[in-house]
Design goal:
The complex is a heterodimer of chains A (about 250) and B (about 290).
Chain A (H helix, E strand, L loop, with lengths): L4 H13 L14 H22 L1 H7 L1 H14 L14 H7 L9 H16 L8 H5 L3 H6 L3 E2 L4 E5 L3 H7 L16 E8 L2 E7 L1 H11 L4 H11 L5 H10 L3 E2 L1
Helix pairs in contact in A: 2-4, 3-4, 3-6, 5-6, 10-11
Chain B lengths: L6 E4 L2 H9 L7 E5 L9 H12 L1 E5 L13 H14 L3 E5 L2 E4 L2 E7 L5 H18 L4 E3 L14 H12 L2 E5 H11 L3 H7 L5 E7 L2 E3 L6 E3 L8 H14 L4 E4 L7 H28 L1
Parallel strand pairs in B: 1-2, 1-12, 2-3, 3-4, 4-7, 7-8, 8-9, 9-12
Antiparallel strand pairs in B: 5-6, 10-11
């Protein structure tokens, strides 16, 4: 039987991703064991990619459940581009729809945080905002100024104590303190030099960052933060943003 | 920077910091998997820039899918071209394989039937890629686990015709020849005797894993071990015939320390040095 190359490739993909063995009819001396070599490379490779991007998600559910999750995810949403550092962004949304695992309440948010960190690591380079010219602006000019977020910066909002959940699961054998799961949190991811920084920020600080990201002036963004928290300390918050390179030039 | 006619090693992220900082004795050259560096920025790219400033780099692709009936992904071509502009690799290479069908990318080098129609597809794709990059590609013989009932020619003939029709060069992976020969029942020595060595611009050496036995015995190209003795012997025979060729030690899984990799490269270098001597002797006699 002579099959057109395009049709052969379509069937081969179906056979490797699922259990459709129709393409085996194409092969000469081969058994399912031969096709299994390709399956193993592909599934093993994608597992490694996802386990690398989502170490805490994996730790939270255990390796057995995580392996099952990656198998369902890769079958439903196989990669579409060969640079696999971009593969896996949709895992958090997939978790919210996955019958086996969607009942772990904060898992999707942890996955979102881990993707933010992964994306921050590979994000475009840009010079961080210089403190010097900024600090010497007259107050009225400073109020009117706008700033841009660095391409690596990501703001996350969660109804769970997301930062704490992520932070206490940094090692396999970490002692896990009791956490109040009713407390929400704001987490800011940025890249300081060559390092990805993950830190919890206040609701007022998050409102400031979101307002600046939306193009508001520093004066207007500070007003939004002050409405959130009358005791908001703009100078202290901005200092932390400069140190952690939240903004770009 | 041009890749020297010497032994190099595959650059893996675990060793990048040391090599970028120059903390260790540097190999003659390194090879990267292009797809690992197609990100927009960040630490990995800046380390690669530091490595490329110190030594020659070769860019070895695993995702261009030159055997795809659907043709090449233009966005991927553009990302690769940007990487080449950044790294200025001495050599660029890809595989005789495919990995994309109908927009799905499978992270493996999948086998092609050795047919006239597959050859036409690969020739068209290789020609397009070479024109887009403005330079010659080296195409690697893959390790294969299945063989298609449809076959108009041998893999060696396929590659020879590909060279003839597109002007591409070849990357000869001797471990792949050994693995495929064991899995598909042909003679590795005969394959190499027929191989168009004049077109070979680079050689790969790697270790493999043996699974099963008897009818179920299968060699898997895992890049997770030292080069086996039989592959060293085949390599020495090839080098004796072709003269010295840039040679790469590939090791991806169960990655050892840099000194272990450098030691593997030193074995290849001794074989290359003998060939250099042999050719010098011949030149003297002539």
């Amino acid at each position: 039987m002579s099959l057109e190359l395009r049709e052969m490739q379509r069937r081969f993909v179906a056979a490797v991703l699922g259990e459709d063995e129709a393409s085996l009819a194409l092969l000469a001396q081969d058994t399912a064991a031969r096709l299994a070599v390709y399956r193993q490379t592909i599934h093993g490779g994608l597992y490694n990619v996802l386990a690398g991007a989502y170490p805490v998600t994996r730790r939270l559910v255990g390796d057995r459940l995580f392996t099952g999750l990656t198998e369902r995810f890769t079958a439903a949403m196989p990669p579409q581009a060969p640079h696999l550092s971009s593969y896996g962004e949709a895992l958090a949304d997939f978790i919210t729809r996955d019958d086996v695992i969607r009942h772990v309440p904060y898992l999707a948010d942890v996955a979102r945080l881990e993707w933010a960190r992964h994306a921050a690591y590979f994000a475009a380079d840009a010079a961080p905002l210089d403190l010097q010219p900024f600090a010497t602006l007259p107050p009225e000019d400073m109020e009117r100024t706008t700033v841009k977020l660095h391409p690596a910066t990501r703001l996350l909002t969660s109804p769970f104590p997301l930062y704490q959940i992520w932070n206490v699961h940094q090692a396999d054998d970490a002692a896990i303190p009791a956490l109040d799961l009713t407390v929400g949190s704001y987490v800011l991811v940025s890249r300081r030099g060559q390092h990805v920084v993950t830190r919890e920020i206040t609701g007022a600080d998050a409102a400031l960052v979101a307002a600046l990201d939306a193009g508001k002036t520093l004066g207007a963004a500070a007003d939004v933060a002050l409405a959130e928290d009358p005791a908001f300390d703009l100078l202290a918050v901005l200092t932390a943003h400069f140190v952690n390179q939240t903004f770009r030039n | 920077m041009g890749v020297p006619t010497a032994a190099g090693i595959g650059l893996r992220t675990q060793h990048m910091t040391a090599l970028a900082a120059g903390d260790v004795s540097a190999p003659a050259w390194v090879e990267i998997h292009s797809e690992n560096f197609l990100c927009d920025g960040g630490p990995r790219l800046s380390m690669l820039n530091a490595v490329a400033a110190r030594m020659a780099v070769s860019c070895h692709g695993v995702g261009l899918s030159l055997g795809s009936a659907d043709g090449l992904d233009r966005e991927h071509l553009a990302r690769l071209k940007l990487l080449f502009a950044r790294v200025r690799p001495g050599l660029i290479s890809e595989h005789l394989a495919w990995s994309v069908s109908e927009g799905v990318y499978l992270n493996d080098l999948l086998p092609l039937p050795m047919t006239e129609s597959a050859l036409e597809t690969v020739c068209r794709n290789v020609a397009q890629a070479q024109e887009f990059f403005g330079r010659r590609l080296l195409i690697e013989n893959p390790s294969t686990y299945v063989r298609f009932t449809d076959a108009d020619m041998s893999e060696v003939d396929f590659l020879a015709l590909l060279v003839e029709r597109t002007g591409c060069g070849l990357l000869l992976d001797i471990n792949n020849v050994y693995v495929s020969a064991a899995n598909n029942g042909f003679d590795a020595g005969a394959y190499l005797r027929d191989f168009p060595l004049a077109a070979v611009g680079e050689i790969h050496l790697a270790g493999h894993t043996v699974t099963g036995d008897g009818d179920t015995r299968l060699l898997i190209d895992t890049h997770s071990a030292q080069v086996c003795d039989a592959v060293w012997d085949l390599y020495a025979e090839v080098i004796a015939r072709s003269g010295a060729v840039p040679t790469l030690i590939e090791w991806d899984h169960a990655l050892p320390t840099l000194p272990v990799l450098m030691n593997e490269a030193a074995i290849a270098q001794r074989i290359l040095d003998r060939a250099g001597q042999h050719i010098k002797d011949r030149a003297y006699v002539a």
